[in-house]
Amino acid sequence: MPKKKVVLNFPPHLIDQPIIYRLIAEKGLRVNILRARITPKKWGSMVVGLNGDKAKVEAGLTFLRDLGVEVELLAEEVKWREERCIHCTACLTPCPTQALYVDRATMIVGFDKEKCIACELCLNVCPYGAMEIAAGQ
Ligand code: SF4
Ligand code: SF4
After folding, report:
1. What angle do CA 131, 72, 14 make, to 5 degrees?
2. Which of 10, 46, 74, 97 could be disulfide-bonded to 36 (CB atoms 3.0-4.6 Å)?
3. CA 13 to centroid of ligand 2, rounded, Å
């Protein structure tokens, strides 16, 4: 099922509107909120994963833009090359979503693809090239 990760920037007058609810209920999309910063009366931002068939995703993006939401597509996927990772944990601090995490008992680093927003902050941090850009879906 096609999936797009997008950054949504909400102008202040839309902050208290049920836009995500309408995206689900009216546009038939599954919405996975990966990160959100919402403050009353200020610009808010959200990183979401949109799941649905291509036409529904496109209709949902048009709906958002028509409302006045700024939409930025995160087209790339970031891939973790586990075989290159030496579990040094250098990438954990810059990762804003905890997609990269460490099991404190074993000190083994893991990667939760569903949480990754492809911000690329880990790419330059990893000294072993274990984080790579992969083709988007
Ligand atoms: S690209 Fe890297 S730093 Fe950004 S969310 Fe994904 S794993 Fe974390
Ligand atoms: S910085 Fe690179 S080698 Fe170190 S834990 Fe993260 S992915 Fe693994």
Report:
1. 130
2. 46
3. 41
Q: If you average pLDDT over every residue of the chain, what do you get?
A: 90
Atom of ligand 2 minimally distant from the CA of 109: 5
Q: Ligand 2 centre from 91 Cα, in Å? A: 6
- Relative to the CA of 111, which ligand 1 atom is closest? 7
**For 108-130, what is each residue's pLDDT tens digit?**
999 999 888 888 889 989 999 99
Within 6 A (CB) of ligand 1 lie 78, 94-97, 99-100, 116-122, 131
Q: Amino acid identity of 104?
A: R
- What ranges make up the beta strands (E) of the chain? 3-10, 30-37, 44-51, 70-74, 77-80, 100-103, 108-111, 131-134
Nearest to 97 by CA among 33, 42, 50, 43: 33
Cα–Cα–Cα angle for 95, 65, 7, rounded to 5 degrees: 0
